[in-house]
Design brief:
Elements lengths: L1 E4 L5 H9 L3 E4 L8 H8 L4 E4 L7 H6 L5 E4 L9 H6 L3 E3 L6 H16 L2 H9 L20 E5 L3 H14 L2 E5 L5 H7 L2 E2 L2 H7 L2 E4 L13 H6 L5 E4 L8 H9 L5 E4 L19 E3 L8 H19 L11
Helix pairs in contact: 1-12, 5-7
This protein binds (2R)-2,3-dihydroxypropanoic acid.
(2R)-2,3-dihydroxypropanoic acid binds next to loops.
Length: 320
């Protein structure tokens, strides 16, 4: 069987596939393929290892219905039409667990960076604006003992909660579709309704999947209900917050700051007003971008394709 890999991955993943006897074709060009290019490339393949967030919608699936399996090198799967894949008997997998620690690190990094206006202060150094020791300039806020509200207490949310509890003894509250008893035990997290999450949190960190229910759930109304001193962090999907309304809430001082690893659209334009704000830190969707994690993701995605070749169920199958 032949695998098409839509963008370069760590060598370990490619070596593993070849060792298993699969033929591998990799898009080594440093660019995201258009839908038409991806469809064309998949015509000569039996399996797809998809890197990135190209829209694998119903049209794409229908044009590639000969595929036997698609392994997504991501935990999120909002960019693929699972019903269409299921209709054509294409098994689809993702890469949960292996990226939870690295993604939670990114959320933690943003929380701390926003609380100390770190990106803005670093820019001042680069711009030659570090004049002297200004006692009252651009002061930050501390996190010790504050309340962290996790929106979406799954694998990544619990890792973030553990870090915040360990580092700053933060009080953890969370809102989810259903209660997470493991989190309640591990970090003494308390389940609250969405309104209480908004009104009680000093920091809200979003870790949920993107769905019709979570799309734009952090909107003007939500930001109005949050504390004026609150920080909003999003490392999940850019559409979970409404970007124009977040911008307005920050401009009007309805919340204190924001840290985003995901934006809407991606990439964010360099002219975006959020990038000029002292209390905002933006990263280019690097949640899982470490050598260790990306290697694990590549290996996990590859092992799911090997399972298809072996005619056994993908271990991380999304459409059993
Ligand atoms: C994920 O794993 O879903 C990240 O957003 C990277 O794709």
């Amino acid at each position: 069987m032949r695998v098409f890999i839509s963008r370069n991955i760590p060598e370990e993943g490619i070596t593993y596939l070849k060792k298993e006897g699969l033929e591998v074709i990799v898009n080594t060009e440093n660019k995201l393929l258009t839908k038409a290019e991806l469809i064309a490339a998949c015509q000569n393949a039996d399996l797809l290892l998809n890197v990135g967030h190209a829209d694998l919608d119903a049209d794409f699936i229908s044009a590639c219905q000969h595929l036997k399996g698609i392994a997504l090198a991501s935990v999120g799967y909002d960019h693929i039409s699972l019903p269409e894949a299921t209709k054509h008997g294409i098994a689809v997998s993702n890469t949960p667990d292996v990226l939870s620690g690295a993604t939670a690190d990114t959320a933690f990094l943003l929380m701390l960076a926003v609380s100390r206006k770190a990106f803005y202060r670093a820019q001042q150094v680069k711009d030659g604006e570090w004049r002297d020791f200004e006692f009252m300039k651009d002061l930050g806020i501390e996190l010790n003992g504050k309340t962290l509200g996790i929106f979406g207490m799954g694998r990544i949310g619990i890792e973030m909660a553990k870090k915040a509890k360990g580092a700053y003894n933060m009080n953890i509250i969370y809102h989810n579709r259903s209660r997470n008893e493991a989190a309640e035990k591990a970090v003494s997290a308390q389940y609250v309704n969405f309104d209480d999450l908004l009104t009680q949190s000093d920091v809200i960190s979003a870790h949920s999947f993107l769905s019709p229910e979570t799309t734009h759930i952090f909107n003007a109304d939500a930001f109005k209900r949050m504390k004026k001193s609150a920080i909003f962090i999003n490392t999940a999907r850019g559409k979970i917050h409404q970007e124009a309304e977040l911008t307005r809430a920050l401009e009007d001082g309805e919340i204190w700051g924001a840290g985003l690893d995901v934006t809407d659209p991606e990439p964010m334009l360099p002219t975006n007003p959020l990038l000029k704000m002292p209390n905002v830190c933006v990263l280019p969707h690097i949640g899982s971008a470490t050598i260790e994690t990306r290697t694990q993701m590549a290996l996990l995605a590859a092992s799911n394709l090997v399972a298809v070749r072996n005619d056994v169920a993908m271990p991380q199958i999304l459409n059993p």
